[in-house]
Amino acid sequence: FFHLQKKRRAATARRQHLKSAMLQLAVTEIEKEAAAKEVEKQNYLAEHCPPLSLPGSMQELQELCKKLHAKIESVDEERYDTEVKLQKTSKELEDLSQKLFDLRGKFKRPPLRRVRMSADAMLRALLGSKHKVCMDLRANLKQVKKEDTEKEKDLRDVGDWRKNIEEKSGMEGRKKMFEAGE
């Protein structure tokens, strides 16, 4: 048991030592990268941005301003072109990733909640603030007049149902029904 604990401690100590060595290596690599970036930046600035020498006369100063404005415009045009290209490629990338997602076919349908909403609220949600018409579902229904059918008239004319049963009960009632049928 004691021997296993020593092995575990040794393995843990070795793992921690390796971890600290890797971290030290990573820190030095990051520092080297930062220094290389700074040198690259300085080289680029020295190449593209020569030191500014201000002329003494007003005429030469105006010429310098015109040159600088022309350079600024060309740089702005380049920046705009690269922005448009970036937007276009990002849109294409998004479309392609959506197509890839659709081709995979593994779409997890989100759990839907049941929401009670009136027709007006639904139209307002779909159409936004443009929707101002109140939707009355019963407004377009036809008006139907009740027509008196013969059965309803007969039922109204009969009156009390007990009298009708008494008249048709017994042999006399059956005789009357038989005669009425003929």
UniProtKB/TrEMBL annotation:
SUPFAM superfamilies: Troponin coil-coiled subunits (SSF90250). GO terms for biological process: cardiac muscle contraction; skeletal muscle contraction. GO terms for molecular function: actin binding. GO terms for cellular component: troponin complex. The keyword Methyltransferase does not apply. InterPro entries: Troponin (IPR001978), Troponin_I (IPR050875), Troponin_sf (IPR038077). Residues 27-106 form a coiled coil. It comes from the Eukaryota. Keywords: Acetylation, Actin-binding, Coiled coil, Muscle protein. Binds to actin and tropomyosin. Troponin I is the inhibitory subunit of troponin, the thin filament regulatory complex which confers calcium-sensitivity to striated muscle actomyosin ATPase activity. Belongs to the troponin I family. This is Troponin I, fast skeletal muscle. It comes from Chaetorhynchus papuensis (pygmy drongo). The gene is Tnni2.
